[in-house]
Amino acid sequence: MDLGPDDEIDHGAPLAPYKQLAAILTARIKRGDWQPDRAIPSEQQLVQQYGIARATVRRAIALLVEQGVLYVVPQRGTYVRRADG
After folding, report:
1. Residues near 5 by beta carbon (within 8 Å), at least 6 away in sequence
2. Which SUPFAM superfamilies does this entry report, sorted A to Z (predicted)?
3. What 3-state class would DSSP assign to 37?
């Protein structure tokens, strides 16, 4: 399932919603919606924008942190990691 930056979450799809969100966020980063070392929208904003549970957003963010796409600054937010590390 190839998701683009403007796609929506498809709850009937075989791919889990958190993986769909992770793919969409990655596509948005590649498109340049958020620059390196800049915050992405808050968990609550993503919940509202995509109509999914906060736990789903957290799982997608955790996956992207694990993959080295994002990093979290406690009490500040989630940021795009520079491609060079």
Report:
1. 24, 27, 28, 30, 31, 33
2. Winged helix' DNA-binding domain (SSF46785)
3. coil
